[in-house]
């Protein structure tokens, strides 16, 4: 008879899990959404997300500690801060766009906003391979382990 306690169960090392450890709940994602839309002050972020003030404070501190957000003083007396995305935060924009597109297609949520690219066309978000230019769906990928030297 096999004793289950004799086998150690460890989760797969995964960059998705690591990313979700930083961003994996709705208030953090909604804060990043607001900052990416140009909303930088606490009261406006709170109003637009609906986050309770204590939770929003905790999420902003966490995002700052993780290097996603930085505080900038905009008023000396009393001290008041606004929040800006760092480079790491800016690099979340494509993820927000993908979530927006997925939500429009699959949740029934409809907003009046459309995304317009700098070329003037309405956004039709597609992932493409930098090498061949082909569309990437995820179904056309295979996993390759990184070597220790490459990691």
Keywords summarizing the entry:
two-stranded antiparallel ribbon, 151 residues, single chain, 39% helix, Arc Repressor Mutant, subunit A, 2 strands, mainly alpha, 6 helices
Summarize the structure in words.
The protein has 151 residues and is mainly alpha-helical. The protein has a domain of 79 residues: Winged helix-like DNA-binding domain superfamily/Winged helix DNA-binding domain (Arc Repressor Mutant, subunit A, Orthogonal Bundle). The protein has 6 helices and 2 strands, in the order ααααββαα. The protein has a two-stranded antiparallel sheet.
Distance between the termini: 40 Å
The CATH architecture assignment of the domain at 15-93 turns out to be Orthogonal Bundle
Rg estimate, integer Å = 20 Å
| SS summary, helix count | 6
Helix content: 25-40%
Shape: globular
The structural class is mainly alpha
* Top CATH class of the domain at 15-93: Mainly Alpha
CATH topology of the domain at 15-93: Arc Repressor Mutant, subunit A
The major pleated sheet works out as:
2 strands, antiparallel
How are the strands ordered across the major sheet? Answer: 1-2
Tell me what portion of residues adopts beta-strand conformation. 5-15%
What letter string, H or E per element, gives the SSE order?
HHHHEEHH
**Which stretches are poorly predicted, pLDDT < 50 over at least 5 residues?**
none
Superfamily (CATH H level) name of the domain at 15-93:
Winged helix-like DNA-binding domain superfamily/Winged helix DNA-binding domain
| Secondary structure tally: strands | 2
Overall average residue pLDDT: 90
